[in-house]
Amino acid sequence: MPVITNNFLEECIDALFEETDLAILTPEQQAGYRPQFLTALETRIGNSLMPRLNPEQLDEFVRLIDNPNSTQQEWNTFWNQAVPNFEEEVKKVVSDFTKEMVESFA
């Protein structure tokens, strides 16, 4: 079962800066954009996955959200059970996001 972590998303943002024209931004500029890009990417992933949840899965999602001690493993187990092609879906959202960011900075 794949594990999608914030580190994974941060690595995606780092790759966006390194592998595109965004590499011309100064480290300070990149640091300014990084949190905004990360938030936007997390939002897009959520917007892509949330509509796929049935009522029982939505209840479980709320339980995990409300539990400040929920672990990354619990989240990954949840998403992999709720969305059978979870890893592919996340990769597609990341790919689409990267393309849009590159186009918007071109």
Q: Please, could you describe this protein's structure?
A:
The protein has helices at residues 6-18, 27-49, 55-66, 72-82, 86-104. By secondary structure, the chain is mostly helical. It has one domain (6-104). The longest helix is centred in the middle third of the chain and has 23 residues, at 27-49. It is elongated.
The overall number of domains is: 1
Helical stretch tally: 5
The portion of residues forming beta strands comes to under 5%
Name the poorly predicted regions.
none
How large is the radius of gyration? Answer: 15 Å
Largest sheet: none
Can you give keywords for this protein?
74% helix, 106 residues, mainly alpha, 5 helices
Short overview:
The protein contains 5 helices and no strands. With 106 residues, it is mainly alpha-helical.
Topology of this structure?
Layout: H1 6-18, H2 27-49, H3 55-66, H4 72-82, H5 86-104
